[in-house]
Design brief:
mainly alpha; about 5% strand; single chain; about 90 residues; elongated
Length: about 90
């Protein structure tokens, strides 16, 4: 779950909403099929697979939350910087 979820996250950066949705749906389907095959083949109990799903979803959610928090700009620093027209910022005088 973690692998395919993070693969979908990485591949969906900068893509259209439709392609992001397809990537997420594809990752979910692959993760479900892999988990079902583990139960079918007797390699794991259903509870093991469900716990793996829960852990994978929690890990992806944690990483996405941390990523969001790191990209949010602090309003105090944004007020003291200005754009110089080239995409770079410099302190205001």
């Amino acid at each position: 779950m973690s692998f395919y979820g993070l693969l979908a996250v990485g591949l969906s950066i900068g893509r259209s909403a439709r392609l992001r949705a397809l990537l997420w749906i594809g990752a979910g389907i692959v993760a479900l099929v892999v988990g079902a095959s583990r139960v079918y083949l007797g390699a794991h109990w259903l509870t093991d697979v469900l716990a793996g799903y829960a852990l994978g979803v929690a890990w992806i959610a944690l990483l996405l939350a941390i990523s969001r928090l790191m990209t949010v700009r602090d309003p105090r620093t944004a007020a003291t910087e200005q754009d110089d027209g080239r995409g770079a910022t410099r302190p205001r005088p």
